[in-house]
Amino acid sequence: MHRLYAQQPPHDTTLYDILQVSPNATAAQITKSYRKLTRIYHPDKQRRNKKNEDEEDRAENEQQLERIREAYEVLKTDKTRLPYHRFGLVDTVHAVYLLTGRFEDAIGRDPNLIELLHLMGYSLDHSAPPPPSIDNFQTTDVGKQIRYKQEHNQRVKFIANNIVGTIRPLVEGSVDEAFLADLVVTQCDRLKKLPMGAQIIRCIGRAYRYAGRKVLRRYHANPKSFGMDNQQPFSKAKLITNPALVTISDSIRDRLRHAGHVMQAAVATGKVIVSKSETVQKANKGEDFDASVSEDGDDESGETPGGFFTNRDPAECLAGFLPPEEDDMRREERAKAQQAILESLEVDALWKISKIDLDRTVREACNMVLEGSMFFGQQEGWVGSSGLVISSSVARIRAAAALVMIGEIMVQRSKEGTAWME
């Protein structure tokens, strides 16, 4: 299993840093460092070394000792270390809470997590809305569909309002692109280290970029349809795509994109089913199972291309020559490693399934903004903070270009310094 951690950078290094070990450290190295640090920060050791230690120092040492113990609980076994290494999860069940907007139920109200939930369309006040008033139909299929539709529409509007709040200063011209770009970079760098943060930011960024480019393609193909001739409403409102793709209709493009996401989810789910089936079959035959986790990705998936995880151990060839006790111990360790890999596959499958809904929801919110209803209502123009009236058409193009810029930053920053591998 050690090769597994050496082949791909970790999602987050916080727990490794606390234990003062490298992300590719062996289990023995982690245990050795843990024992060393617990001796250093043990209250008895501190009292002997610092007789005049004040209350504040003692409290800080106790907190550090608690952090060391918590980090070791996660990193000491592959079952908890692998999900943390790949996704930043200290518990795989947290993936369910996060991807369904209930993460605060398990972790608490971390401001950064709340901000990540907001990007996904979940607020603490509305992530679990009360059932709609459909009386006796609440438990029926129709009632469930109505409730889902209401919750979905609520998410779309919540995301759309957040988007407007983010891009409004740039559309108005009260800030420049560099200023907004710096804010987005700072936000991404803060959120991408959260559990599944890089994956979520990348997915949302791609949805922003896709929706913005869709409007810009129509504008560049026919400016008059936007009520303009050769105006330049925004310096960055350029067509950022392959010219050969202009002939592809948006409807075909949407279907291809959705089909790609569904295929990724199906493949990820299939890996889980096949891996579990092979594990059971080989266990029944008394054979060893070599499970692997491969991450396949393309331009639109945002997943890690080329990553390969395996639990193969070069020393396994000696298994038949080991004493019975050591042979049993090695088999038990392999079984634990196999279980850890299977759980990681399950999280990967859950994410790829959830990504379909997240991408669709964010794009709906972007379309709501770019259609103009979130800006203008029934008005023909938009009065910015400076008092100048911006025409609806110009504002739409500026908003689309702003989304492309923000989306591109989110995609790139989600890769920077994370587990993404070219």
UniProtKB/TrEMBL annotation:
Sequence intervals crossing the membrane: none
Stretch list, region Disordered: 43-62, 284-313
Lineage: superkingdom: Eukaryota
Database matches in Gene3D superfamilies: DnaJ domain
Residues annotated as domain J: 14-88
Composition-biased stretches (Acidic residues): 289-302
Name this polypeptide is given: J domain-containing protein
